Amino acid sequence: MAAGYYTPALMKPAPFDYHQARSVAEAVAHLGEYGYEAKILAGGQSLVPAMNFRLARPAVLVDINPLDELDYLEEDGDTLRIGAMVRHVTFERPVTEGPTGRILTMAAQHVGHLPIRIRGTFGGSLAHADPAAEWCVIALLLDAELSTRSPSGSRDIPVAGFFQTVFTTALEPDELLVEARLPKLSPRTRIGFQQFSRRAGDFALTMAAVALESDDGRVGNARIALGGVSDRPLRASEAEQALEGQPATGESFRAAAEVAAREIDAIGDIHGSADYRRDLVRALTRRALEQATAA
Amino acid sequence: MSERTKAEVTLAVNGRSYRVRVEPRRTLADTLRDDCGLTGTHLGCEHGVCGACTILADGQPVRSCLMFAVQCEGMDLRTVEDLADGDRLHPIQEAFWENHGLQCGFCTPGFLMLAAGYLEQNPDPDDDELRAVLSSNLCRCTGYQNILKSVRQAAEVMRG
């Protein structure tokens, strides 16, 4: 960060034109007109700080806060449908029965602080694509499918191809993320969520979310998603395979955590080296697996 | 920036209506201070980290540096100026005074509004819950223990 960021006069956004969308159609029409010049304003808890620093200087803001049509939670058979404008705070209590509601609640507690959770949105977090964002990791863990609208129609994007790199997704400049669909975990799925950050409420240096079944003492359907370690959230697929069919014991979990630490391509930055992050992956993956299978 | 790019916005703050002309980029925090003259709301970091600018929007604590005034038409906004009833301090203010919940006072308006918004919806929090909520804002003087004590006492008084 340049020293200038601490000069008070610079802590104001650059000028922009403001459009308050009254419908999804109107919002995407603005996106169609302005393309890369425009940014969607959802909760604004990441975008507005970036604008205050002038790291982001959109010429046009399209405010979708008035769109109640994007603020819904619906259970559709085995799928939980989350409208893009559902605020983080909504997930502090389980929004659905079973492990899916529980892991959303576990993750929600780590999203910023209360005033941030009151404004910030589920869809905004996914579209922003911070590699250390809880919802991005959870969406990846649950194999979410994302729906978009644009002036030319709508599109469904599997989460596996959605996150491309830091703050970069498969969304086109004229596309609005409107819904995330989370296939619900089976009732017998066990879950764990662990993260490490230097101060409460900070973005995590590393986080691990896991889901597995272990009915007969052996691991089935193991999933491990990691955040904060790379330029995007990742699934530790080799570690998942290594766990499959293994006894659900501390020894297997240690071995799988070792595989996870080896397979990921960790980044190093001012907050921690790549080696340090690999150590965190090893520790947090093991703890999340143990948390999942504890009583 | 030409005059025509400004927008007319009516804000409902502390039960009063303020008609202001602001550029879209004007944050709610700056609008409250500079256009409404309500300087009780303080600006610390201006990027959502410190919480000094916390106010209530429709009863919920929010960072006013992360919202634009043009977004806030129709919202019920409350700032620290609304807490006291004339010369009578709000129980949260009383409690901060009695328990040394402030030293320099810069962060205090944010903490007061954070506590007010939280206690109105959660009148009987335990200490763990209070710690989690109070970790939202930064204070560089008190070490937080007296703030925790203050909010705990205020909760008791407000429960009656």
Overall description:
The complex is a heterodimer of chains A (295) and B (160). Chain A has 295 residues and is of the alpha+beta class. In chain A, 30% of the residues lie in helices and 24% in strands. Chain A folds into three domains: 13-63, Uridine Diphospho-n-acetylenolpyruvylglucosamine Reductase, domain 2, CATH 3.30.43.10; 68-183, Uridine Diphospho-n-acetylenolpyruvylglucosamine Reductase, domain 3, CATH 3.30.465; 190-293, Enolase-like, domain 1 (2-Layer Sandwich). A five-stranded antiparallel β-sheet of chain A has the order 4-5-10-6-7. Chain A has a four-stranded antiparallel β-sheet with strand order 11-12-13-14. A three-stranded parallel β-sheet of chain A has the order 1-3-2, with helices on one face. In chain A, strand 4 (73-76) and strand 5 form a beta hairpin. Chain A is globular. Chain A starts with 16 loop residues before the first strand and ends with a helix. The model of chain A has no long low-confidence stretch (mean pLDDT 95). Chain B is α+β, with helices and mostly antiparallel strands and 160 residues long. Chain B has two domains: 3-82, Beta-grasp domain (Ubiquitin-like (UB roll)); 91-159, Orthogonal Bundle (DNA polymerase, domain 1). Chain B is 33% helix and 16% strand. Chain B contains five helices and five strands; from the N terminus they run E-E-H-E-E-E-H-H-H-H. Chain B has helices at 28-35, 91-98, 108-121, 127-134, 145-159, and strands at residues 7-13, 16-22, 54-57, 60-63, 76-78. In chain B, strands 2-1-5-3-4 form a five-stranded mixed β-sheet, sandwiched between helices. In chain B, strand 1 (7-13) and strand 2 (16-22) form a beta hairpin. The longest helix of chain B has 15 residues, at 145-159. Chain B is globular and about 50 Å long. Chain A binds chain B through residues 8, 11-18, 20, 41, 44-45, 48-49, 51-53, 61, 63, 65, 109, 113-116, 118-119, 200-201, and chain B through 1, 5, 7, 23-25, 27, 30, 46-48, 51, 54, 60-63, 65-68, 70-71, 114, 118, 132-133, 135-137.
